[in-house]
Automatic annotation (TrEMBL):
Protein name listed in UniProt: SidA/IucD/PvdA family monooxygenase
Any GO MF annotation of the entry: monooxygenase activity
Family annotation (Gene3D superfamilies): FAD/NAD(P)-binding domain
Keywords: Monooxygenase, Oxidoreductase
Species this protein is from: Pseudomonas spelaei
């Protein structure tokens, strides 16, 4: 497709949920804009994730305010393709000006005149403003400890699709956040022997006293936390909407046959060593789980709500052998491991954005998405304005703020002083 537009007020890069939300709010504010997407709308939900993935939050929660999932029960968990369809339908609803199949290659500030020059796979665009909505999770990260020259298949969770894709044999899954634990569970259900390396994590109950954890985090103000608590930078969240939505309980997984190990420390050829912190990590996860039950009980009490008691939520599985006698070293070859899956997270890549909007470590410098380089905006960053920022419902609210800022800036630039106004009034009216 040829990009005909050569000048646009605001260019949005990326048409995932962030780009779609941005377009909706810019449309409402009357800001002329264009969204460029290198693949398809919500591509990462279609091809960037494993086949069986469903949303981690229920359909009543993981959506934008302007549209419900008409074919998923409010308490159900939409399949990933359905989530992608949802964003396509959403974009159609307000006729979002999205061009797909166009990659933005570079953005540079103009010298001596306002705006930016944007090189794309389909030509050059001049834009007054650019919103980078290219996602919180762009480049798979595999840590440097990954063993070299070993006879294992090693993939990142971003490349995992289904159990049939893996060779025969046991699997070591490194990382037990939502991706790692869901993949490990799927592989174990498919009959594979699974070793799961568990680091620091939060694990809220899927639901407690008839309310999903998304509801609890909402009413308890946790989604709105402005910044990560110090020291919690490496704490993942282990939740799942799979199989109708179940609380992640690591001991239960172990009782089903999974082997839990601590944080992966290093490799010496085929021999992996694990940190002696499995018990500590599980204990901290339990504390997080119990803290949410306590906070929920207190909320119910304070507000006099009539929600059923749920004493079984405090039932604890006995410690399995892999917890009482943690494995600190494992010869993967002898254990029959043929695959390592690195569920170790993602980094961002803004190499195309050649502007002064980054700190020394390459992180975007911004306030609620308004960057330190005037005219450049970010959307969809983790913790952009709050804990919920990189999630479906959160990005919609951040987009509103960014659109407001853009509309306000346009108002300043539209301002004409008295002499300029006189000029406009007197100019070409009479011949
Ligand atoms: C496994 C997994 C499960 C998740 N589940 C949930 C969930 O259940 N609920 C929830 O709320 N959140 C979930 N998230 C978090 C978040 O909602 C998703 O990561 C979501 O995809 C982020 O949307 P986004 O629009 O910010 O970024 P993306 O979906 O990553 O979209 C960015 C878009 O930008 C495009 N792009 C990138 N670079 C360029 C370029 N140079 N030019 C043109 N286009 C470009 C990409 O092709 C992509 O389509 C999940 C994340 C992961 C990894």
């Amino acid at each position: 497709m040829t990009v005909e537009t050569t000048k646009i007020d605001t260019l949005v890069v990326g048409a995932g949920q962030a780009g779609v939300a941005m377009s909706e709010h810019l449309s409402k504010q009357g800001v002329p804009h264009l969204v460029l997407e290198r693949s398809r709308i919500a591509e990462r939900w279609r091809t960037g994730r494993w086949d069986s993935l469903v949303a981690n939050g229920p359909a009543w929660h993981d959506r934008f305010p302007g549209l419900e999932f008409d074919d998923v029960s409010p308490d159900g968990f939409a399949a990933k393709e359905r989530v992608a369809d949802y964003f396509e339908a959403y974009a159609r609803k307000f006729n979002a000006p999205i061009r797909t199949g166009v990659e933005v290659k570079s953005v540079e500030r103009n010298v001596g005149r306002p705006g930016f020059t944007v090189h794309t796979s389909e030509g050059v665009i001049e834009a007054n403003r650019v919103v980078a909505a290219t996602g919180p999770f762009q480049k798979p990260v595999i840590p440097a400890i990954a063993p070299q020259n070993v006879p294992f298949t090693q993939i990142h969770s971003a490349d995992y699709r289904n159990p049939a894709q893996l060779p025969e044999g046991a699997v070591l899954v490194v990382g037990a956040g939502s991706s790692g634990v869901q993949i490990a569970d799927e592989l174990q259900r498919a009959g594979k022997q699974v070793y799961l390396s568990v680091g620091a994590h939060d694990r809220p109950p899927r639901a407690y006293r008839n309310r999903d954890f998304c509801w609890w985090l909402g009413v308890l103000g946790e989604w709105d936390q402005a910044a990560m608590k110090p020291g919690r930078e490496h704490v993942t969240i282990a939740v799942s909407g799979a199989h109708g939505g179940k609380t992640i309980d690591f001991r239960e997984l172990a009782h089903r046959g999974m082997t839990l190990v601590g944080l992966t420390h290093s490799f010496d050829g085929a021999v992996a060593t694990f940190q002696p912190n499995l018990v500590e990590n599980l204990t901290r996860g339990d504390e997080n789980y119990l803290a949410l039950l306590e906070a929920a009980d207190a909320y119910i009490e304070r507000n006099g709500l009539d929600l059923p008691q749920e004493p079984e939520a405090r039932r604890v599985f006995p410690d399995p052998e892999c917890v009482t006698q943690p494995i600190l070293e494992l010869d993967l070859a002898k254990a029959g491991v043929t695959t390592i899956i690195w569920a170790t997270g993602f980094a961002v890549d803004y190499s195309w954005l050649k502007v002064d909007a980054f700190d020394a470590s390459g992180k975007p410098q911004h306030q609620r998405g308004v960057s330190s380089e005037p005219g450049i905006y970010f959307l969809g960053l983790p913790w952009q304005s709050r804990r919920g920022s990189s999630f479906i419902w959160g990005v919609w609210h951040d987009a509103k703020h960014v659109a407001d800022h853009i509309a306000t800036q346009r108002k300043y630039l539209d301002y004409r002083d008295a002499s300029q106004r006189r000029e406009t009034t007197h100019s070409p009216v009479s011949a």
